[in-house]
Amino acid sequence: MMNDQGILLESGTNELEIVEFSVGENRFGINVIKVKEILNPSPVTKIPHSHPSVEGIIDIRGSVVPVVDVAHALGFEPSSNPNQDKFILAEFNQTKIVFHVHTVTQIHRISWESIEKPGKMYQGLETQITGVVKKDDEMLLLLDFEKVVADINPETSVHTEQIKVLGERERSNKHILISEDSALLRGLLRETLEEAGYVNTTAFEDGKEAYEHLVSLIEQGKEALEEYQLIITDIEMPRMDGHHFTKLIKEHDQLKNLPVVIFSSLITEDLKHKGEKVGADAQISKPEIVNLIQTIDHYIK
Hints:
Elements: E1 15-23, E2 26-31, E3 35-39, E4 54-60, E5 63-69, H1 70-74, E6 86-92, E7 95-101, E8 103-111, E9 115-116, E10 129-135, E11 138-143, H2 145-152, E12 172-179, H3 183-195, E13 198-204, H4 207-219, H5 224-227, E14 230-233, H6 242-251, E15 260-264, H7 272-277, E16 282-285, H8 289-300
Parallel strand pairs: 2-11, 5-7, 12-13, 12-14, 14-15, 15-16
Antiparallel strand pairs: 1-2, 1-8, 3-6, 4-5, 6-7, 9-10, 10-11
Helix pairs in contact: 4-6
């Protein structure tokens, strides 16, 4: 189903395609870019002492892949008809993982502008979702798969301890702008950058908010390159994604010389061309924080 690369959109259009799936009565979505294949359920080999949300492992054409029960991870009831369930084989953070869901229905093409930030009204799910799409008088929730995986295996997330391999660090007065929709990752990123000596950071929740801030500085007569020396941006963000954000920066006469580093779980060899096309100076896969720090050093030290 997902092998047709033609479904992937051009870079910088601020659009995405999402696969709609359900868990119980709830409708969710996952970015097509993350999805490798939709599979029918197959026998799962249980592994001892695993996380309660991990059903076990399966073999997919020679690759051993863990299976996560999304219903359990979200605190929902198990499937009433497991034989009709679906497995979503996904890849992000340079890792393959299977998500066990209840149905997979259709693919939607939408603009990031139509995705709202999650509020506190989503029955305890506000920390588990990255955006809300209103379609057909119903809500489609974009599940934060990175957080689901990080809750199961914290080692997949950013950690300040990782940068100890870089040794003693000097304090830097360079100002870094961060565009990241996950509150958890924003905090971890700022904390890690501070540990690496980059104590002067300003963070925004999406590309639109960050870009409007940069434009407002110019309208105030300020030099963007004096205010900030580097930008770090995620890709998946409500309202404006990182590719479109990067494209706007590189097309703006007074912003184009700002180094932009895309720091995302979606950086793979197959998808790097998207960031290259919009002019990103560097692209680094989460959670490779040491690589990120070394890249920052290269551009602004």
